[in-house]
Specification:
alpha+beta; Chloramphenicol Acetyltransferase; six-stranded mixed β-sheet; five-stranded mixed β-sheet; 12 helices; 16 strands; 33% helix; globular
């Protein structure tokens, strides 16, 4: 693979990271063990297969030279120069000063990334400790931690990928490449990018100007929506914390058939039901811990992928998002679901390119040096933008295996933003829904209660939908 400049959003993720808030996403996969040595065998397989996956060999290096005559940079593919219809992007394409690029690591050693641990009595407890540790930035930013079970009847693998290396879909692709080989359909090839010059084609200047004006209008709309979202904030102190640098994880599994029963009875989509379950679980959890849920309506950021399905894509994040208030303070579970459904319908009608949730799109309008200088400030501003992350991570419909052992459960784990105490991720795999929770370890010591509340909320919805 050749070197290429980080796309604007990737660069933002690379620069907002701090020691207390590492920007990696993860997945904790649990496998039944076919033998006592299954964990060690899995670690050997992961290490032996990693060298053959080009994306896992890519490190991220800073860029401090640019422009004509600036050395190897002129041969790099620049995402800022890759959109000819955007005047501002085209004009700053040649100047990548302060940016970063992906490039193959000539000293790549899989043994630096795959680690076999001592038997773990609790996979989530071990995963929490491992989630605290930032990835090494001088080498390809990913790790695979193999955790044998205490009774040798199962093992777990925690995959960690820096968000600048991969979004959820790309991380899935990289992790799946380390699993046992399978006969899969070949993805449709991505159309080749047209040849690009360092300066925009003057014949397209009118289109470029119109595109730039459209982008400016969109940016103003997003900014105004963010400002409006801060009005009448009704979050909960339980969702806010000063960072301790510690992490705690938990998870729960529910039956997808139950979700479909709720959806068919109450309306909406599967995703609407899953978000409403989070709202109801937060209500239970806040009441049980004594914080109270009355009047609470935290702003949930719902990331939206801008990738086209079933198409091969290059590395890089392509994300927008929706922002909505979770009806935690609403007493009736069906009303909570209806409120979520209506809010999601409004977001979908507006589209993922406008509104307060689309702040990620503004990264395209910031030059590389701006990301580097402003990254820490942007990270600290997350608390002003939203209160809790609720993200869906795609998983394949087919079963995965490692060393012949089937993947039985997989819990997605999202990064925790500064000032936030909780992040929620959800994935559907083999007829079951897996919720993965990440929290500040000091602020949320009762995370298991929230995991239990998710299951209880599903039971409540089933009862009211199908007595």
């Amino acid at each position: 693979m050749t070197a290429d400049l980080l796309a604007p959003l990737d660069l933002a993720f690379w620069n907002i990271e701090s020691a207390d808030h590492p920007m990696h996403l993860a997945a904790l996969g649990v496998f039944p063990a076919g033998s006592p040595a299954a964990g060690a065998h899995a670690a050997d397989l992961l290490a032996s297969r990693a060298s053959a996956v080009p994306g896992l060999r890519m490190r991220i290096r800073d860029v401090w030279r640019a422009g004509p005559g600036g050395g190897p940079l002129t041969a790099l593919r620049s995402p800022w120069a890759g959109r000819g219809e955007r005047l501002a992007a085209a004009l700053r394409g040649p100047l990548a000063f302060g940016g970063a690029r992906r490039e193959p690591d000539p000293r790549f050693d899989p043994q630096d990334h795959v680690r076999l641990h001592a038997p773990a009595p609790d996979f989530h407890e071990a995963a929490g400790r491992l989630m605290e540790r930032p990835l090494e930035r001088s080498r390809p930013p990913w790790e695979a931690h193999v955790l044998p079970g205490r009774d040798s009847d199962c093992f777990a693998v925690l995959f960690k990928f820096h968000h600048a290396l991969a979004d959820g879909l790309r991380a899935l692709t990289l992790a799946a490449a380390l699993m046992d080989p399978m006969d899969l359909p070949t993805p449709r090839p991505r159309p080749a990018d047209p040849a690009r010059g360092l300066l925009p084609d003057v014949r397209r200047m009118p289109d470029l100007v119109r595109g730039a004006l459209s982008d400016a209008g969109r940016a103003l709309d997003i900014g105004a929506s963010v400002a409006r979202s801060t009005l009448d904030m009704r979050s909960s102190p339980a969702l806010v914390c000063a960072s301790s640098g510690t992490r705690r994880t938990a998870g729960t599994v529910i039956d997808l058939d139950d979700v479909h029963r709720i959806r068919k009875s109450a309306g909406g989509t599967v995703n609407d039901v899953l978000i409403a379950v989070v709202a109801g679980a937060l209500r239970r959890w806040l009441d049980e811990r004594g914080d109270g849920s009355e009047g609470v309506a935290p702003r949930a950021l719902i990331p939206v992928s801008r990738r086209r399905p079933r198409t091969a894509h290059p590395q890089g994040n392509r994300l927008s998002g929706y922002l909505m208030r979770l009806p935690v303070g609403e007493r009736d579970p069906l009303t909570r679901l209806t409120t979520v459904r209506d809010a999601m319908d409004r977001n979908k009608d507006a589209g993922p390119h406008r509104g307060a949730g689309a702040v990620a799109l503004l990264a395209d309008h910031v030059p590389p040096l701006g990301h580097r200088l402003g990254g820490p400030l942007v990270g600290q501003a997350a608390r002003l933008w939203f209160d809790v992350l609720v993200t869906s991570v795609p998983l394949p419909g087919f079963g995965l295996r490692l060393g012949g052992d089937p993947l039985g459960a997989v819990f997605p784990l999202a990064p925790l933003a500064p000032g936030h105490s909780l992040a929620v991720a959800v994935s559907t795999y083999r007829g079951r829904v897996h919720y993965g929770l990440v929290a500040d370890g000091e602020a949320v010591k009762d995370l298991d209660l929230l995991a239990l509340a998710l299951s209880e909320e599903v039971e409540t919805l089933l009862t009211v939908c199908d007595p």
